[in-house]
């Protein structure tokens, strides 16, 4: 998780704690802050992937502009972002909050 930054790593651990401790008292503000950070993490990764794809298609004739490992890392980062958002969506109703 180090590749994804401290904020996402900490929120992933927070979500894991919530998932495995149903009924744990949760502060509304903290849950919304977690949602905001996860959403920002996912949106930034998807925006970067879209920008890279656009540059590749419109300016480089479809040639990939990332090295294979960087491209794979970005794809993995976006998969993690989607998974974290899915887990949050699953957890929020358990604590009486909207996803």
TL;DR of this structure?
The chain contains 3 helices and no strands. It is an all-alpha fold.
Written overview of the protein:
The chain has 99 residues and is mostly helical. It has one domain. 71% of the residues lie in helices and 0% in strands. The longest helix has 32 residues, at 28-59. 13% of the residues are buried.
Features:
99 residues; mainly alpha; 0% strand
Low-confidence stretches: none
Number of helices: 3
Element-by-element helix/strand order: HHH
**Major sheet: size, sense and barrel closure?**
none
Domains counted in the coordinates: how many? 1
Task: Output the structural class.
Answer: mainly alpha
Number of strands: 0
Integer average pLDDT = 79
Shape: elongated
The percent range for strand residues is under 5%
Radius of gyration: 16 Å
Termini separation comes to 23 Å
How is the topology of this model organized?
Elements: H1 6-19, H2 28-59, H3 68-91
């Amino acid at each position: 998780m180090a590749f994804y930054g401290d904020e996402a790593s900490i929120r992933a651990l927070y979500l894991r704690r919530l998932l495995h401790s149903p009924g744990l008292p949760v502060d509304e503000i903290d849950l919304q802050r977690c949602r905001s950070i996860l959403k920002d993490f996912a949106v930034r990764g998807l925006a970067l992937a879209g920008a890279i794809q656009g540059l590749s298609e419109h300016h480089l004739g479809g040639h990939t502009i990332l090295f294979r490992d960087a491209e794979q890392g970005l794809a993995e980062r976006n998969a993690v972002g989607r998974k974290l958002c899915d887990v949050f969506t699953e957890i929020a109703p358990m604590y009486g909050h909207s996803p």
